[in-house]
Write a structure and sequence with these properties.
103 residues; Alpha-Beta Plaits; 2 helices; 5 strands; 5-stranded mixed sheet
């Protein structure tokens, strides 16, 4: 990506497995804040966790590795999906947040 140093990326995600009731959202929030990524995370009615993360390519790749392979200490990730990868000129969010679930 030529000129990507001044660009941001965005990706949507959904994480499957034992990811609710195990502080998955909190650990996701903590890591995003620590590395400076922005976006959101929430529980879904079907027992998954989904959200969007935005930042530099390095920040987003770091979050994707966490979401797909690490999660919270008590979580068990069985499947993950990343969709809507795109490059951004400006971020859509100014912080990372835990939002209410889609009940």
């Amino acid at each position: 990506m030529a000129g990507s140093a001044n660009r941001f990326v965005s990706v949507d995600y959904e994480i499957f497995g034992d990811v609710q009731g195990v502080f998955f959202r909190q650990h996701t929030y903590d890591l995003a804040c620590q590395i400076g990524a922005v976006g959101w995370v929430m529980n879904t009615a079907k027992g998954t966790v989904k959200g969007r993360v935005q930042g530099t390519l390095r920040q987003v790749e770091h979050m994707k590795q966490f979401l797909a392979h690490r999660g919270s200490p008590m979580s068990k990730i069985t499947k993950y999906e990343f969709t809507n990868d795109k490059e951004l000129v400006n971020l859509d969010y100014n912080k990372f947040s835990i939002t209410a679930g889609d009940w």
